[in-house]
Amino acid sequence: MTEPQDETRIPVIIGVGQVNDRPADDAEALDSRQLMEAAIRAADADAGGGFISRIDWLGITRQISFPSLHKTMVEGLCTALGIAPAHAEQSKGPNGDTPIKYLNDAANAIGEGRAQVAIIAGAEALRTAARRPDGGGIGRNMRMPEVPPIHVKYGLRTPTDIYPLYENAGRKTWGQTLAEGQAETGVIWSLFSQVAAANPAAWIRKSLPAEDIITASANNRPIAFPYTKLMVANSSVNQGAALLVTSLAVARAAGVPESRIIYVGKGAAAHESDNVLERARWDNSPSMAVTLEQVVARNGLDPQKLDHLELYSCFPCVPKMARRTLGLPADRVATVFGGLTFGGGPIGNYMAHAAASMVEKMRVKPGDGLLFANGGFATHNHAILLTTRPQPAGTFPQDYDCQPEADRRRGAVPELVDGYEGPAEIETYTVIYDREAQPKFGVVLAKTPNGRRAIARVPAEDDGMIAFLTSGAEEPVGTSGTVVRVGDFCHWSRG
After folding, report:
1. CA torsion angle 45 48 52 57 (round to 10)
2. Which residues pair with 477 in a beta bridge?
3. Can you give 16-60 as a three-state secondary structure string?
4. Rounded CA separation 42/234 (Å)
5. Which CATH class is domain 7-130+235-390+397-410?
6. Which residues pair with 103 in a beta bridge?
7. 489-493 and 480-486 as β-strands: parallel, antiparallel, unpaired?
8. Which SS3 state, helix, strand or coil, does residue 166 take?
9. Which of 57, 85, 204, 209 is a Cys-bridge partner for 118, taking CB atoms 3.0 to 4.6 Å apart?
10. What is the pLDDT along the chain (495 residues), one digit of tens a residue?
């Protein structure tokens, strides 16, 4: 005889809330804490109301706007909601995988009997913060993970500088010309824009053709080669999102209709080094691959048959690598929210919006939905299943850490050296542009004959080398050259 299910140990999502704040007067805009509160209240209303006072687990994705609120965010939000949860925490950093990690952690807490009503929330008000003194003036000068001095010296300090290294190395490995690589981006991003155009929660609701996305123009300036403005995350938003997770017992006792209950499936996670240039190679990510492979295996999924999909999209290289791991074509729609360019890129909280949109989609079209999150500099990965298929008690708690397998696959990381002079072969590269669409400098990472990794700069005035790196007439990755010392920098020379 089958044992009765303990529904107090089965986690489900019963409410979601998303907020877009676009006041005509910036003085009337919500700050990040107020956005979180509004999103939580919206999630409570979506579930039928009456759950806020019962919250016993709270996970907040750290925001970077309005830094004066950082230290008191948990206390301030709890006070605003009138709650005192047994567990309340804010993440250490605004990493993009945090909402999915917290979803898994909340599911584990319910599976262990430590919680019955949980909230995952986050928000950014960067659009307003950049315009208001009390926002700390944060806008383009947002705080990012610390990077070593050598990276700062050569201009590789933000995600915009780092992710193109993956894009350019990947293109070579995937056997694409520059035009073919850009065309793939155009297909993926155009589909994202179409989803955003139909999603009331998205920030930019305008469908764009691929050609407009991949072609540099006055309204689509180059950012870091080969990325233009319409290929990168749009952080100038005021957005908040929240997920209300309860036990199945709480949901049913409250009379939540079965058609509105979404089950949390198993998750997986792995990461790379926090040192942004400690990558064994630049054309793939072992931790990303392991995370995706494990979430598929643990949930018995066929990626080809997924009903809903969200592949993190801060920069095109991420969904490109992820779709190849899953064996999916470029024209498979890989978002339910609209992507970080069009849906909106509220720093670490994008995936809360993606999860909320997936819940809304699944209530209309039942099935399985895969959420894949990425954070840092292609550093942190976390994936999880949402499904309308009832999950058995005992699914949680689960150990989602897949780090040992990622470490096993990684292989040796080349030593990064500054000061090397001599022959080398380009491993990857990028060119950074200013706001007037002019090259500021290029950066080349190259393999030396003894297997070390050299770093070199390409001055903006070296027109010939800048053209070689960006024209597409010849693939730079894999070509030979020479690193020479010029003052404090090493420069790249072809020949």
Report:
1. -110
2. none
3. EEEEECCCCCHHHCCCHHHHHHHHHHHHHHHCCCCCHHHCCEEEE
4. 24
5. alpha beta
6. none
7. antiparallel
8. helix
9. 57
10. 455 689 999 999 999 999 999 988 888 899 999 999 999 999 999 999 999 999 999 999 999 999 889 899 999 999 999 999 999 999 999 999 999 999 999 999 999 999 999 999 999 999 988 887 766 545 434 445 567 889 899 999 999 999 999 999 999 999 999 999 999 999 999 999 999 999 999 999 999 999 999 999 999 999 999 999 999 999 999 999 999 999 999 999 999 999 999 999 999 999 999 998 999 999 999 999 999 999 999 999 999 999 999 999 999 999 999 999 999 999 999 999 999 999 999 999 999 999 999 999 999 999 999 999 999 999 999 999 999 999 999 999 999 999 999 999 999 999 999 999 999 999 999 999 999 999 999 999 999 999 999 999 999 999 999 999 999 999 999 999 999 999 999 999 987
Cβ burial of 15 (10 Å; 0-12, 13-18, 19+) is buried
Residue ranges per domain, the chain?
A: 7-130+235-390+397-410, 416-493
Spatial contact of 275 and 148, defined as CB atoms under 8 Å apart: yes
How far CA 123 is from CA of 37, 96, 342, 372, 391, in Å, comes to 9, 12, 17, 19, 30
Give the residues across from 124 on adjacent strands. 239
Helix axes 350-364, 98-111, angle to 10 degrees: 60
The hierarchical CATH code for the domain 416-493 is: 2.40.50.840
